[in-house]
Amino acid sequence: MKTISVPEKEQLSFGTQSILESVEKKMGKIPNLYATIGYSSSALKSMLETEASLAHDSSFTAKEREAINLIVSQVNECDYCLAAHTTLAKMRGFTEEDTLEIRKGSFSEVKLDAAIKLAHSIANNKGNAGNGALENFFNAGYDEKALVELTALVALRSFTNYVFANTQIPIDFPLAQAI
């Protein structure tokens, strides 16, 4: 089988290089997964624009989005995204114990728990959340906008999970604790 390597910035298109330079300024590094997605400038640009759009006028805080990222990455068994989003979740105020609880599919805060359970159900059931998870989500106080945004977050994180699954590039974040 062909081994996929993380490209050097110079190996990528000028458009991708420009995007990755912005990522590096913001994050202080270019994550291996972003560089690898950069083989396709349009895929990288679309991913980053979607992430930025979902952060702008979102039903979810940055901390809540990290919880959704964690549960989806757990369902998809993506070691890269679990490592990256555990690191980011801790930067957003979650403890190590919180990240493990989220990855196990629940959380002590009722409203966030409903979002985690819905994200888990969507990711685990190929998009079909099931009436119970949806009802719980709406009963927790979320609306249709939040449902669409959560579905977009699940799809976006699944994309990065799938890129890692098919490339197995080196993980450049501290590994997440196994559960």
On the 0-100 scale, what is the average pLDDT? 97
CATH topology of the largest domain: AhpD-like
Order of H and E elements: HHHHHHHHH
Q: Describe the sheet with the most strands.
A: none
The fraction of residues in strands falls at under 5%
Description:
It contains 9 helices and no strands. It is an all-alpha fold and about 180 residues long. The protein folds into 2 domains: about 50 residues, Single alpha-helices involved in coiled-coils or other helix-helix interfaces, CATH 1.20.5; about 100 residues, Up-down Bundle (AhpD-like). Helix 4 packs antiparallel against helix 5, helix 4 runs parallel beside helix 7 and helix 7 packs antiparallel against helix 8. The protein is globular.
Describe the protein's topology.
Layout: H1 14-27, H2 32-37, H3 41-56, H4 62-75, H5 79-91, H6 96-103, H7 110-124, H8 131-139, H9 144-167
Helix pairs in contact: 3-9, 4-5, 4-7, 4-9, 7-8, 7-9
